[in-house]
Structure formats: structure tokens, C-alpha cells
Design goal:
Length: 123
Amino acid sequence: MLTEFGRFCRKLRIDNGELLKHMADKLGVTSSYLSAVENGKRNVPQDWVEKIANLYSLGTEEYSELKKAAQNSQKVVKLDFEGFDLEDKDTLLALARQFKDLTEDDKMLIKNILQKRKKGGIK
């Protein structure tokens, strides 16, 4: 099934009159690998958003759309625990393990806390 990232790339290719092979060649990968990424069988490589944005001279709005599509298409996320103490690691891992069991209210509460922090509302 085509991911959000896959739909973005397909539209980009059509708009530029390209085939899957052309984009794959530009990215330095095989057509089958690009297809696997677009269909969610492989994660979107971290450097592809920048590569695609540069290769196709994407504007700010298109770049944001591509970045969001790549993030929404990720199946696996890697966390860098460097600089975290053991208690913080345990907390993050517990959240990841138990997230699917949280209620929608709990998820919204966590999201609100994080958004307030981002906006500087919580010190």
C-alpha cells in the first residue's frame, strides 16, 4: 500500500515526467528499493528528504509537505539516548511500550504538555 511519502514521490515524478527508475537513479538506489520505501516495506532513509528537496528544487511549502509525509510514513523510529540518565531512558521506553494502551484523553494530555513546553509555557 502506497504511503503518504510514496504518494508525494509519485506525484513529484508525474509532475516532472519521470519514471520510478529516474528518481531511483537520482537517489542512488535501485527501483525496487525506492518502491519498497514508497510502499512502506522499508523506512524512508533520513537523508532522502533533503536529497529530494535539493534534486527537485522544492519550495518551502513542498519541502514541509515532503518532510511531514516522510515522518508520517515511518514505521520505526530510532531514539538517541546519549546524555540521558537511566530513569529518563526507562520513562521513554515505558511510554513507547505502553502508548497503544493509553486512552485518547491520556494521549491528548501528553501532547498538550509537550506543546506547552515547545511554546515556552512550562519551565
